[in-house]
Amino acid sequence: MTSMTEVAEVLGLPTTPAIGSGFALIARIEEGLPLDTLERVVRLVAPDDARFKYRLVPKATYERRKASRVLSPEQGTRVARLAKVWSAAVDVWRDEAAARDFLFRPHPMLEDELPVDVVLRSEFGAELVIDILGRLKYGSAA
Fold first, then answer.
1. What is the mean pLDDT of the segment spanning 109-126?
2. Which of 13, 23, 106, 126 has its CA 20 to 30 A from that of 3?
3. For the chain, what are the domain ranges?
């Protein structure tokens, strides 16, 4: 549904043929994504919530990360996971405002939790949300 190239674009990383395979993106995350990727994804997903970034990286940790300007691999994985779901939501809805509305509205297939909360919780949560987006895109019950 969402390619690695699309995820790299959301993250603001240069898209190269190697990124498309996924291994280059994994390597970038492991070496530490720039702190700017966090800022970029937050501006896309929650532009009106100045504190949203602290749901991805706690405030104290964020303040420490400002010195190195690099995210840890765990933090980068969390940001990339959200970027992947964001890309899928925009692909389905074809509109950023509608994608945001989907992510921040309780969904019955997620026990009325917000999709964004489920995504931030774990990789399995992100897969549940991507499954719902796939059902919406391809016309199944969602």
1. 97
2. 106
3. 4-138
